[in-house]
Design goal:
Number of domains: 3
Order of helices and strands: EEHEEEEEHEEEEEHHEEHEEHEEEHE
CATH class of the largest domain: Alpha Beta
Low-confidence stretches: none
Shape: globular
Number of helices: 7
CATH architecture of the largest domain: 2-Layer Sandwich
Structural class: alpha+beta
Bound molecules: flavin-adenine dinucleotide
Number of strands: 20
Distance between the termini: 25 Å
Strand order of the largest sheet: 6-7-12-10-11
Radius of gyration: 20 Å
Helix content: 10-25%
């Protein structure tokens, strides 16, 4: 494996931030990853793992080794009349994997269609969309322990999944490199169409016979209309998480703001729509030089071209201040900042 010096990371992050990596390699196997770990240890350098770069804010040049995750391969481990187990390596592109599953009549990931990024990053924040989360389908995660170089397997219940997080973002942050993920998928279709505007979209498409492939198409249509394509307008999807508040706080806010949006969360708490609050404080569609809040989706900050991470983070700070002032609610940034 080649280790290059002083590489531009702009093409490798969907915010198109102009950071550079002091060293850079493309890992295509677990052996390559071990080599990268040995190099970083010998040179005493930090490591930055990059998949599709669609959930990171690169705020500066990275002073260590950037490892681009390029391990490829998908295999069917098991198949019965009811389910199949599919194992995909970390560098597989997520949406291409979802399509591969649908083509192979393995169902359950269709609501997660068109989420950018790689299979290996999907468990980090337990990706979710349209009423389905990765944890609903994940069987196990294989990972390389950066401290010991050993490979380990995490069963679903050991991943500590909850809304947009897992042990890999929490207590094991930076400890493991995810090398492969195994999904347990259905052979018998059971499409989930109750969330948001999925049913309406299917009706608009003229579909009465609801199949997983059609649900996937409906979700792609919805996402293409709602979210900016990072290849056209640089962004990292939702910049803030939907905050969780107690039912008392929700009740208090709801009595002041009748149209406040909240979803049932764990432990009788309520997950507030951060997008609604950002919209309500007047930020939707707002532009500050090269950065702004997308006009179609208040949760998405965009780089119109040439923005620095500083400009993005300043805008994010102003939005958080406004929301805190108006609602006394703290917004948490979703992408990881380096
Ligand atoms: C337009 C758009 C829409 C989006 N919509 C959604 C959505 O609907 N739902 C959702 O949940 N997310 C969404 N996202 C966020 C993003 O697509 C996901 O979080 C995705 O899983 C990130 O994958 P990635 O390969 O790009 O990760 P990266 O951005 O490359 O990495 C993210 C983090 O994971 C670490 N990492 C990456 N690969 C590995 C690995 N193999 N092992 C260990 N650590 C690793 C990185 O170091 C970094 O900390 C969206 C993003 C965009 C741009």
């Amino acid at each position: 494996m080649k280790i290059l010096e002083d590489q531009a990371l702009q093409p490798l992050n969907t915010f198109a931030l102009p950071a550079r990596g002091r060293y850079f390699c493309r890992a295509e196997s677990v052996d390559d990853l071990r080599e990268a770990l040995a190099f970083s240890e010998a040179e005493n350098l930090p490591i930055l793992l990059l998949g599709g770069g669609s959930n990171v804010v690169l705020s500066r040049d990275f002073p260590g080794l950037v490892v681009h995750m390029a391990l490829k391969g998908i295999e069917r481990l098991e198949e019965t009349a009811d389910h199949c187990l599919l194992r995909a390596k970390a560098g597989e592109e997520w949406h291409a994997f979802v399509e591969h599953c649908l083509q192979g009549a393995c169902f359950g990931l269709e609501n997660l269609s068109l989420i950018p990024g790689t299979v290996g990053a999907a468990p980090i924040q337990n990706i979710g969309a349209y009423g389905v989360e990765l944890r609903d389908r994940l069987e196990s995660v294989e990972a390389l322990d950066r401290a010991t170089g050993e490979t380990v397997r995490f069963a679903n219940r050991e991943c500590g999944f909850s809304y947009r997080t897992s042990v890999f973002k929490g207590r094991f942050r930076d400890r493991y490199i995810i090398t492969a993920v195994t999904l347990r998928l259905d052979k018998r279709p059971a499409p989930v169409t109750t969330y948001g505007s999925v049913e309406r979209e299917l009706r608009a498409m003229g579909e009465t016979d609801i199949t997983p492939v059609r649900v996937s198409r409906a979700i792609c249509n919805l996402r293409r209309r709602k979210l900016p394509d990072p290849a056209v307008l640089a962004n990292v999807g939702s910049f803030f998480k939907n905050p969780l508040v107690s039912s008392e706080v929700f009740g208090r806010l709801k009595s002041r703001y009748e149209d406040l949006i909240g979803y049932p969360g764990p432990d009788h708490r309520v997950r507030l729509s951060a997008g609604w609050m950002i919209d309500r404080t007047g930020w939707k569609g707002c532009r500050r030089g090269p950065v702004g809040v997308h006009a179609g989706h208040a949760l998405v900050l965009v780089n119109y071209g040439g923005a620095s991470a500083g400009e993005i983070l300043r805008l994010a700070r102003e939005i958080r201040d406004s929301v805190r002032e108006a609602f006394d609610v703290e917004l948490e940034i979703e992408p990881r900042i380096y």
